[in-house]
């Protein structure tokens, strides 16, 4: 018998990978499923983006291997995007590395900087991939609590009480997933100071800045952040390009070079046409963000009505692609609650527990469902 690697004993199949099989099975049985669980944008990229890809396919250079660092004009577009939207200066030749989605970057960064036995600070609740990748590379997850009472921000007094001697890396992500907490420049300044004090690599996962958020921010806006920080970003949510797999990591040249040494041994450059589409997307002006947010605002209003119809209390301060809501008093299990709704009303909602123990008692709705479908979900109750 061929056995699997021991590292697989540290992880399970990603929740949405397994749960969506159940959802698809119900749909195949003719059940009228409304999927409000996963944050996969249902809207299309702009026509200019689609046209750019269509034109690029005809290019004589379109179908060969591409550079591990992406097209120079793609990196320049990413640098311009950061300059125009965050007032952050980045050298496109040394301080930006295009990625096949920011999720890829979580693995590359972990492989580049973590040794077996190193510790990693991971938010609870937070993106589950931080934990799974930490386990896969043989490092140790150390969770830090985020709580609604503290606006889902780290408690620095509690962090300072931890033994930080083995901590090599800290994951953050604002706007926060799953809660939608905005964060602030003051929070970023405190995080950079904390990372410098304890010689920790700070990584901000930043794909939600432009969704229902009137104040997009970057960790790299903080003076001196490049000394200790990297930032992941993505075109998935901002430009409705989730399936295209386009992201980036930014930071100082030495840190980016370390990530490139991993990436260049794991894959090749992304398809030429996708890069050309990404270049066009990054040129989008404020009217693009405004048009998307008008849609998401209407969806959020209806989704909050659905949550409140279920007796939940909505976290109203949230931004981004999700609505985070606290379950009614007396509900013991978020997973049992959402399973009952799935099998009785055929509506799939994500339980907060998949994001960590501090997610118990909460559920998350994605704003990736058309208004008429959200209204249909409301009507089912």
From TrEMBL:
Q: Which cofactors does this protein require?
A: pyridoxal 5'-phosphate
- GO terms for molecular function, please? pyridoxal phosphate binding; transaminase activity
Class in the EC hierarchy, top level: transferase
Which residue range or ranges hold the Aminotransferase class I/classII large domain? 32-381
What range does the record give for the signal peptide? Answer: none
A UniProt-annotated Pfam family? Aminotran_1_2
Supply the InterPro entries for this chain: Aminotransferase_I/II_large (IPR004839), LL-DAP_aminotransferase (IPR050881), NHTrfase_class1_PyrdxlP-BS (IPR004838), PyrdxlP-dep_Trfase (IPR015424), PyrdxlP-dep_Trfase_major (IPR015421), PyrdxlP-dep_Trfase_small (IPR015422)
What EC number(s) would the UniProt record show? 2.6.1.-
Q: Does the keyword Lipid biosynthesis apply?
A: no
- Keywords per UniProt: Aminotransferase, Transferase
Q: What's the family?
A: Belongs to the class-I pyridoxal-phosphate-dependent aminotransferase family.
Q: What is this protein called?
A: Aminotransferase
Organism in which the protein naturally occurs: Flavobacterium sufflavum
């Amino acid at each position: 018998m061929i056995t699997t690697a021991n590292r697989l004993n540290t992880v399970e199949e990603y929740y949405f990978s397994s749960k969506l099989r159940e959802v698809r099975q119900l749909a195949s049985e003719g059940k009228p499923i409304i999927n409000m669980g996963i944050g996969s944008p249902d809207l299309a990229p702009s026509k200019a983006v689609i046209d750019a890809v269509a034109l690029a396919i005809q290019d004589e250079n379109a179908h060969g291997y591409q550079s591990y660092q992406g097209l120079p004009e793609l990196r320049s577009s990413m640098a311009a995007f950061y300059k125009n939207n965050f007032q952050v200066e980045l050298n496109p030749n040394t301080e930006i590395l295009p990625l096949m989605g920011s999720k890829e970057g979580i693995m590359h960064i972990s492989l580049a900087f973590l040794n077996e036995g190193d510790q990693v600070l991971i938010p609870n609740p937070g993106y589950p991939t931080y934990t799974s990748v930490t386990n896969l590379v043989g490092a140790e997850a150390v969770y830090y609590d985020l709580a609604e009472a503290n606006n889902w921000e780290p408690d620095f007094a509690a962090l300072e009480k931890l033994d930080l001697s083995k901590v090599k890396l800290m994951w953050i992500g604002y706007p926060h997933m799953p809660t939608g907490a905005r964060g602030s420049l003051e929070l970023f300044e405190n995080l950079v100071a904390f990372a410098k004090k304890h010689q920790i690599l700070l990584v901000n996962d930043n794909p939600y800045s432009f969704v229902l958020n009137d104040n997009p921010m970057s960790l790299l806006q903080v003076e001196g952040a490049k000394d200790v920080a990297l930032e992941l970003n993505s075109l998935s949510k901002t430009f409705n390009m989730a399936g295209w797999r386009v992201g980036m990591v930014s930071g100082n040249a030495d840190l980016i070079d370390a990530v490139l040494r991993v990436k260049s041994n794991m894959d090749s450059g992304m398809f030429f046409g996708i890069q050309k589409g990404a270049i066009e997307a990054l040129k989008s002006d404020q009217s693009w963000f405004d048009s998307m947010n008008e849609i998401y605002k209407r969806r959020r209003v209806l989704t909050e009505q659905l949550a409140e119809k279920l007796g939940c209390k909505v976290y109203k301060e949230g931004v981004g692609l999700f609505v985070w809501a606290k379950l009614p008093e007396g509900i013991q299990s978020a997973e049992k609650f959402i399973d009952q709704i799935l099998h009785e009303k055929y509506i799939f909602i994500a339980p907060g527990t998949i994001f960590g123990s501090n997610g118990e008692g909460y559920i998350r709705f994605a704003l990736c469902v058309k208004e008429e479908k959200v209204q249909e979900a409301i009507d089912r109750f």
